[in-house]
Amino acid sequence: MTKRFLVVVFISNLLLSGCARSPSINVLGAYFPDWMFCFIGGILLAMLTHAGLVGAGVIKKINSPVLLLSYSALTAILAMLGWLLFFQN
């Protein structure tokens, strides 16, 4: 075997080592990916945060284009935190 072939085999084994199992949850017989639950949880928590900020009167002082970016970032952060908290192996 050539050296190049061994390097290709080694690199492909490294790249495919993360494909051991599919991260999914069985819900009533259908398998859903874990990230979907984390994303939905992030959206719900961002909505609760929005309700709290509206109740505190903070939203009136913030520009609306800034809100779109900040709520998108907040949703992503909360979804990733949910992934780390509930689905770590």
Write a concise keyword list for the protein shown above.
elongated; YtcA; mainly alpha; palmitate; 89 residues; membrane
Shape: elongated
Radius of gyration: 21 Å
Class based on secondary structure composition and strand pairing: mainly alpha
Average pLDDT score: 81
Report the sheet with the most strands, covering strand number, pairing sense and barrel closure: 2 strands, antiparallel
Strand proportion, as a percent range, falls in 5-15%
Order of helices and strands: HEEHH
Number of distinct helices: 3
Low-confidence stretches: none
> How many β-strands, per DSSP?
2
Helix content: 55-70%
The main sheet orders its strands as 1-2
> How many angstroms separate the termini?
37 Å
Model description:
The chain has 89 residues and is mainly α. The chain has a domain at 47-89. The chain is 67% helix and 9% strand. It has helices at residues 3-16, 34-56, 64-86; strands spanning 24-27, 30-33. A two-stranded antiparallel sheet has the order 1-2. Helix 2 crosses helix 3 (64-86). 6% of the residues are buried.
Topology (elements, then pairings):
Blueprint: H1 3-16, E1 24-27, E2 30-33, H2 34-56, H3 64-86
Antiparallel strand pairs: 1-2
Brief rundown of the structure:
By secondary structure, the protein is mainly alpha-helical. Helices cover 67% and strands 9% of the residues. The protein has a domain at 47-89.
